[in-house]
Design a protein that fits this description.
252 residues; alpha/beta; Rossmann fold; seven-stranded parallel beta sheet; two-stranded antiparallel sheet; globular; binds NADP nicotinamide-adenine-dinucleotide phosphate; Fungal_SecMetab_SDRs; oxidoreductase activity; SDR_fam
């Protein structure tokens, strides 16, 4: 699949920034919109965009509907009817639920959980909804377009008990929000496959980023490369799948 126009969220650093670096090596690309909470402070991204004017840093808070609307307007003013080939819902948070080993959830609170749902789940729901006309246009001109939801192995309901035993750390807010993101992937595939808009959920592996920490197993750049290779080989029947960065199915 020739990726011409793409939007990636959460590009200040981490996996999002690596996606931008890989995408701009693609000879077919025209515009990569790189969403950031505060583009001015994303120094590495700004430098990349100065070297390549087709990388466009944009202000995009996925938990803010006005920010989504402004980003949509800016993107559409630049791509017109060409459409969008790829939306990467990458932005996410994973903050401690107030769990203390041996004591349990000493500080579990509703606001903390809602924050995770707002950024990790409702952000992708609202952004994807806003950009569906552009994704459909992309699919018309380019045979297919892709919504890539960056999920996690923690989204798996069938493995939830295993993770408690392995890590003794529930990540409940995070797991709930990513499981719900998988639900979006599946629902979207039901309604949008007829328009050749493919949606998939991918666990990138445990990667070295501010979220993954320095002891993680894989580099973010390697994960970005692998995941984008996976995306370019997708076919419409892949829509709705939840998989790892090597394309192997994970248990929902
Ligand atoms: N690292 C891992 O081992 C791992 C494993 C499994 C899945 N993942 C998933 O991979 C994705 C990328 O993770 P990462 O490791 O690169 O995380 P990261 O280093 O913490 O980066 C997260 C990005 O999301 C942005 N972000 C946070 N809240 C936002 C909001 N409200 N609106 C827009 N952007 C927002 C952050 O920007 P600001 O800091 O400026 O807010 C940052 O650019 C996430 O969805 C994560 O859940 C990561």
């Amino acid at each position: 699949m020739a990726i011409r126009n793409a939007l990636v969220t959460g590009c200040d650093y981490g996996l999002g920034l690596e996606f931008v670096k890989v995408l701009c090596k693609n000879e077919n690309f025209r515009k990569i919109f790189a969403g950031c909470v505060d583009p001015k402070s994303a120094t590495e991204l700004v430098k990349l965009s100065q070297e390549n004017s087709n990388i466009v840093p944009i202000q995009l808070r996925v938990d803010d509907d006005e920010s989504i609307e402004s980003a949509k307007n800016l993107i559409e003013s630049q791509i017109g009817s060409e459409g969008l080939d790829l939306l990467i819902n990458n932005a996410g948070i994973n903050q401690n639920d107030g769990w203390v080993p041996g004591k349990g959830w000493v500080n579990l609170n509703r606001a903390h959980m809602l924050k995770h749902l707002n950024i990790n789940t409702l952000g992708p729901v609202m952004l994807t909804h806003a950009l569906l006309p552009d994704l459909r246009n992309g699919a018309k001109l380019n045979s297919k377009s892709v919504v890539l939801n960056i999920s996690s192995d923690r989204a798996s309901i069938s493995l939830a008990r295993t993770y408690q035993e392995d890590f003794n750390c529930p990540s409940l807010s995070y797991g709930l929000s990513k499981a719900a993101l998988n639900h979006l992937t599946s629902t979207l595939s039901y309604y949008e496959t007829k328009n050749n808009v493919i949606s998939i959920a991918v666990h990138p592996g445990w990667i070295v980023t501010p979220m993954g920490g320095p002891k993680a197993t894989f580099s973010a750049s390697e994960s970005a490369e692998k995941i984008l290779k996976l995306v370019s080989n997708l076919t419409v029947p892949d829509s709705g799948r939840y998989m790892n960065r090597d394309g192997q199915d994970l248990d929902l």
